Amino acid sequence: MLLIRRFEERAGQLYGMGLIAGFCHLYSGQEAVVVGIQSILKPQDTVITAYRDHGHMLACEMDPKGVMAELTGRSGGYSKGKGGSMHMFSREKNFFGGHGIVGAQVPIGTGLAFAHKYKEDGGVCITYMGDGAANQGQVYESYNMASLWKLPVVYVVENNHYGMGTSVERSSAGPNYYGRGQGWGIPGELVDGMELLKVKEAARRAVDYARSGKGPYILEMDTYRYRGHSMSDPAKYRSKEEVEGVKEKRDPIDHFRTYMLKTLKIPEDQIKDIEEEIKTVVLEAVEFAKTSPEPDPSELYTDVLKEGENV
Amino acid sequence: MTLISMTVREALRDAMAEEIRRDETVFLMGEEVAEYNGAYKVSQGLLDEFGPKRIVDTPITEHGFAGLGVGAAFGGLRPIIEFMTFNFSMQAMDQIINSAAKTLYMSGGQMGCPIVFRGPNGAASRVGAQHSHCFASLYAHCPGLKVISPYSAGDAKALLKAAIRDPNPVIFLENELLYGQHFDDVSDDPDHVLPIGKALVRREGKDVTLTAFSIMVGKALQAADLLAEQGIEAEVIDLRTIRPLDTETIVQSVKKTNRIVSIEESWPFAGIGSEIAALMMEQAFDYLDAPLIRVTGADVPMPYAANLEHLALPQVETIVEAAKTACYRTPS
Fold it and tell me: Which of A20, A98, A169, B217 satisfies CB 3.0 to 4.6 Å to A15 for a cystine?
C-alpha cells in the first residue's frame, strides 16, 4: 500500500514537472482495495481494470521502473512508451490492462473468465471497475452472460463516490452497486474498502465462490480517492473538509500501520526500514523513468499487426 | 487438391468446421449459431459435431459478447464471433476498434488479439436502412484490423480459414445474397488457405480496370461481358481483402489499361473507391488517361421501396456506363 502511495506521489510530481503528460489518474486513498484482493490470488488468476491502474500493476508485482517509465513515455516502459498511464499490460503477471474506455474492461474481463473455464485452468478473473463504469450497459450484458454460463469472475466495484466530478448520488438511482447482480442471481457484498483485512476476507469469500464453479460475485468497495479524477481536476465538487476527514479518520495505510504496531507487535524500527526501502524503490523507478530513452522513431510503425500466421 | 462445387454458405461452414477440428482453442460464438444452426444456416450441423462448449449461443447482447470474445482472445483462445448481420456490429464497435484493434499497439506488442468477427454485410433485399449497411470502408479505416470480403465460395472458405489462423483481429464481411450461390472453386484440402491481402484478377482485359469486392464482383463480371460485346475488354479485379489492400495488383492493371472504375455498394464519401482514387493519384498518376470513376451506392440511407432500392445500389448497367465513360465512349 505504501509503495503505491509513494509511487503516486512521485508520479504527481513528475506530472507537475512536465515529465508525464496526457491523462494520469492517481490511486492514492484506494490502496487497500487492490492490495487486499491481490494478496489472495493464485498465479493462474487474471486481472483487468480501467485507467486508474498504477496501483493494480504494482499490486500485481509489475516492476515499478517499467510502470514509471511508461508514464514518462520511455522505451523502458511496459508498453515501450506507446501506451501511457492508461494502457499498460503484463502477460507475465497476468495483468490485462489498463483500459481507457469506461466500462469496456468489464466484458473483456468476462471473456478472460470464459477462457479460464474453457481451458479448465482453475483461474479466476478479477475485473475492477469504478462507480462511474458501473452505470454502463455493457456491465449488465456481462453480468448476464457471466451468470448464465457460471464464469469464474469477481467484479470489484471500486466506489470512490465520484465518477469524475459527478457524485454517485447524482449519477446512480439506487447506488447499491453490490446489489445490482441480484436479478441475475449474482451474490454481492458491500465492503469497507479502506480496511485491508476486511477487503482480504471478502475477497477470499468471493474468489472461493467463483473458483468453485458457482459463477460470478460482486464486491463493492467503499473507498475514496484523495486526488482529483485526473491531474487536471482541481476537484471543486467536494469540500476540503470532506477529503481531509477521510484522510484523518479512514486512511488505509495509517490504519494498517497501527495494526502492525499494536496488534502484530512489529517494532517501529522494522516498519521504518520498510518505509525506507520503499522510498528507495520509488526513487530508482523515477531515475529509470527519467533516463530511459524515448522510443526509437522506428517504433512508430511497429506492433500495429502481429507478423506471421499461425498456420 | 480437388476443386468441388458448393454454396458460399456451405464453404463458410466447412471452413469453420475444419478449423474447429484442427485447433481446440477455436470456438464459434454468436446469436442463434448453435441450436438454431445459424440465423442464415451458416453454422448448420456445427453444434451436433462440436457440442455447446465450442458452438456457443449468446443472448442478444452484441456489445457484451464482442467484448467477451476480445477477452477470450487475450486469454489464449481463438474466437469466431458471428454477428447475425454486421449491422449489429455497430453496437459492438467500441470493443472491435478500441479493444481488439488497438491493444497490440498500446501494449508495445504484448497483447495480440486473434479473433474473427464475421457475418453478412451490406444490402440484402428489401430490409431497409438499418439492415443494409456495408461496413468495408468503416472498418478498413482502422489500423490494427484486417478486413476481408470474399466473392466466391472457394475464396470464402480459404480466406475464412486464413482469418481464423491469423494472429490479428479480422473483420470478415460476407453477403447474404451470395450465401446460396454455387461456385466450382472450393478446395477439399483442409490445409488450403489463401493469403490475406492478395487480390485476384478474375478476368483479364486491356481497356479498363474494374475493381470490386463481394457481390459486386459478380456484377462487374456481368458488366465486362456486356462491354466485350461493345468492343471494350475490361479487366476485373476481385479485391478479396480490403485491408491490407493489394495496391500492387491494381497499379499493375492500370499501367496496362490506363483507365479504372471502382465499384462498391457502400456510400461514396470516404469509401473504398475514394481510397483507390487517392492511391492511383499517388502511384499511377502518369498512367491514367482518364479520371477514376466511382460506382457506389447512393448517398442515402437504404430505401425500402423496390424501385428506390434498385436505384440506390450499383447495377450492371451503371457499371457498363461508367466503364464507357472512362473509355471516352458515347454513353448508350
Answer: A20
DSSP-derived secondary structure letter, A34: H
Residue A296 near chain B (CB below 8 Å) = no
Note whether B63 contacts A137, CB cutoff 8 Å.
yes
- To the query of whether residue B174 is one of the catalytic residues in this protein, the response is no
Would the pLDDT of B332 be above 70? no
Domain limits, CATH 3.40.50.920, in chain B: 200-326
Locate B59 and state its grid cell.
443472448
The Cα–Cα gap between B79 and B76 comes to: 10
What are residue B27's DSSP bridge partners?
A: B79
- Residue B168, min C-alpha distance to chain A (Å): 6
Is residue B131 part of the annotated active site? The answer reads yes
Look at residue B238 and give its three-state secondary structure: strand
Q: What is the CATH number of the domain that holds A141?
A: 3.40.50.970
Which residues in chain B are contacts of A45 at CB distance < 8 A?
none
Q: Where in chain B is the domain with CATH 3.40.50.970?
A: 3-187
**In b/e form, how buried is each residue of B299-325, taking b as 16+ CB within 10 angstroms?**
eeebbeeeeebeebbbebebbbbbbbb
Mean pLDDT, chain B, rounded, equals 97
Beta bridge partners, B55, equal B28
Answer whether B304 touches A (CB < 8 Å): no
CA dihedral over B26, B30, B34, B36, signed as positive or negative:
negative
pLDDT along chain A (311 residues), means of 10: 97 96 95 98 97 97 98 97 97 96 97 98 98 96 98 98 94 93 97 98 98 98 94 91 95 96 96 97 98 97 82 40
Chain A residue with Cα closest to B107? A79
A141 to B64: CB separation less than 8 angstroms, yes or no: yes
Q: Is B144 exposed, middle or buried (0-12, 13-18, 19+ CB in 10 A)?
A: buried
Supply the Cα-derived Rg of chain A in whole angstroms.
19
Total number of residues shown for chain A: 311
Q: For residue A173, what are the domain limits?
A: 30-59+90-266
Q: How many domains does chain A have?
A: 1
Residues B53-73, mean pLDDT to the nearest whole number:
98
Please tell me which residue in B18, B19, B31, B62 is annotated as part of the active site.
B62
Which residue has 449519477 as its cell numbers? A171
Per DSSP, the residues of A121-159 read: ----EEEEEETTGGGSHHHHHHHHHHHHTT--EEEEEEE
pTM: 0.96
User: Is the CB of A142 inside 8 Å of chain B's CB atoms?
Assistant: yes
Across chain A, mean pLDDT equals 96
Q: Name the CATH topology of B3-187.
A: Rossmann fold (3.40.50)
Question: Top-level CATH class of B200-326?
Answer: alpha beta
C-alpha cell at A161: 463516490
B331 has a pLDDT exceeding 80 = no
Within a domain: A284 = no
To the nearest 10°, report the CA torsion of B244, B249, B255, B259.
-70
Q: Do B27 and A144 touch (CB under 8 A)?
A: no
Does residue A258 belong to any structural domain of this protein? yes
Give residue A160's pLDDT: 95
Among candidates B27, B104, B162 on the partner chain, residue whose Cβ is nearest the Cβ of A306: B104
Overall size of chain B counted in residues: 332
Q: What are residue B137's DSSP bridge partners?
A: none
Q: Which of A111, A145, A309 sits opposite B165 (nearest CB)?
A: A309
